[in-house]
Design goal:
By secondary structure, this protein is of the alpha/beta class. It has ten helices and eleven strands. The model has no long low-confidence stretch (mean pLDDT 87).
């Protein structure tokens, strides 16, 4: 782990957001708002969902949903960890009037930004703030390990989680997977990212010394044992066994380049599982 990343994790959650706002303040002050599309891109200082090109990443994910997950324009979509709209924004150009989008997140500022800038123009897009406990994003909150999603059974055709399970501990992950199975319609799919720990990733991992999981807890590993949700890697066999037990079938696995794999052959930095009910 880099020194800068470690220093960032030493800050309390609310200070991490402030540090990012201050860092990107010069660029955000100089932002120009022209087209409606430009207004749908949040200021860099508000983006807390990873690095890279926010717009390009969202559009790339949309193509994966369509090509690999068979997402249709009329589907009901649940975006878990909807953040500040990285997935929702490109979906506004793809989902039609028969579709429905629901997103929820533990960070209030992201939900409020999405409601103001997305729901205002696309009323079938709904965002919900859920104050769940997570030592990366929040200091206090509800227990994610017992949280019941506020949606009916068999309601969604497609569920997406990008960089969510990578910041959750085992009992939380197990509960979320159970809830995903509950709210998915039969035949529905879920595309979720993980850090999958197996023989290959363990062998390749030393080649990326800036991104390590040194704290071994058996079926999962931590990047930081003080901020446990910072980044979490899971043993592939543990996940496979749990998914089989609850009735989610792994249709495909797309390995990421986080551990040192060839970037050009990977779908994403993180590993991606395509699940089907």
């Amino acid at each position: 782990m880099t020194i800068l990343r470690r220093l960032f994790y030493l800050l309390p959650p609310n200070m991490r957001f402030l540090a990012r706002r201050l860092y990107y303040l010069p660029a955000d002050v100089g932002r120009k708002f022209g087209t409606k599309e430009a207004q749908l891109i949040p200021p860099k200082g508000l983006i807390y969902t990873g690095s890279g090109d926010f717009k390009a990443q969202g559009e790339a994910w949309l193509q994966h949903f369509i090509q690999e997950g068979e997402l249709a324009p009329y589907h009901y979509v649940l975006d878990i960890g909807s953040g500040i709209g990285r997935i929702a924004i490109p979906l506004t150009k793809y989902l039609n009037g028969k579709a429905k989008y629901e997103g929820f997140d533990v960070v209030k500022l992201g939900v409020e930004w999405c409601e103001k800038n997305i729901t205002t123009h696309y009323p079938q897009f709904h965002f919900t703030y859920i104050p769940l406990d997570n030592d990366l994003y929040r200091s206090k909150g509800l227990n994610a390990a017992s949280f019941r999603f506020p949606y009916e059974d068999n309601h969604f055709d497609f569920v997406v989680l990008t960089s969510v399970f990578t910041h959750m501990l085992p009992d939380e992950v197990e509960n979320y997977l159970k809830e995903i199975h509950r709210v998915l319609r039969p035949g529905g799919r879920c595309m979720a990212t993980f850090f999958l720990w197996n023989e290959e990733s363990e062998r390749l991992s030393p080649s990326n010394p800036k991104f390590q999981f040194p704290y071994d807890y058996g079926h999962y590993r931590l990047m930081d044992d003080k901020v446990k949700a910072a980044n979490v890697a899971y043993q592939s066999t543990y996940l496979e066994n749990h998914l089989a037990k609850i009735g989610l079938h792994v249709e495909n696995t797309f390995y990421g380049f986080w551990c040192g794999r060839e970037k050009k052959t990977a779908m994403d930095f993180q590993d991606v599982l395509l699940l089907k009910k």
